[in-house]
Amino acid sequence: MVQIAPMSQHIRPITAADNAAVASIIRRVMPEFGADGPGFAIHDAEVDDMAAAYAIPCAAYFVVEKDGVVMGGGGIAPLIGGDADTCELRKMYFLPELRGLGAGNALMQTCLAKAKELGYHRVYLETLTGMDAAKKLYRMSGFTPLREALGRTGHFSCDSFFVREI
């Protein structure tokens, strides 16, 4: 468990009991940024059972709790159609009440550490125009923009791609 200032927040691995909360967060946050049409992660089958989806080898998903309530999450998993040494940062979303409190940076560091522990050498992610705070976090975390997508994620509506060596 990673503590985030203030102490009422912490990061922990997802459990099956978190599935409904995480699905609700994804379905609430993505439309905020216009990411609710075809080609976005909101439609991925894993959204309803994130605990099972990330219980595979070389994957991990974490939730961020504030005062005992799940308010965000994010994880890593192998990049579908990508190199074996590249993972994808996936479904990192936060409710508005959690934003600006340092949770994004703390969760990013947790995901990067897990990626390194699992033997990955690169972390890839996809996002879209309008997610400016997220892009700022990615750049601050050492990600650099790419001109085109890597792998075959199925998220054809994303228009911004980043990678980071670890």
Radius of gyration, rounded? 14 Å
Number of domains: 1
Q: What's the total count of β strands?
A: 8
CATH-defined architecture: 3-Layer(aba) Sandwich
Spans with pLDDT under 50 lasting ≥5 residues? none
Sheet bearing the most strands, described? Answer: 8 strands, mixed
Order of helices and strands: EEHHEEEHEHEE
Residue-averaged pLDDT: 94
CATH topology-level name: Aminopeptidase
Strand order of the largest sheet: 1-2-3-4-5-6-8-7
CATH class: Alpha Beta
Q: Mind explaining what this structure looks like?
A:
The chain has a single domain (2-165), classed as Aminopeptidase (3-Layer(aba) Sandwich). It is built from four helices and eight strands; from the N terminus they run E-E-H-H-E-E-E-H-E-H-E-E. It has helices at residues 19-32, 50-53, 103-117, 132-140, and strands spanning 2-4, 9-13, 60-66, 69-78, 86-94, 122-127, 144-146, 160-165. An eight-stranded mixed β-sheet has the order 1-2-3-4-5-6-8-7, with helices on both faces. Strand 3 and strand 4 form a beta hairpin. The longest helix is centred in the middle third of the chain and has 15 residues, at 103-117. The protein is globular and about 40 Å long. The model has no long low-confidence stretch (mean pLDDT 94).
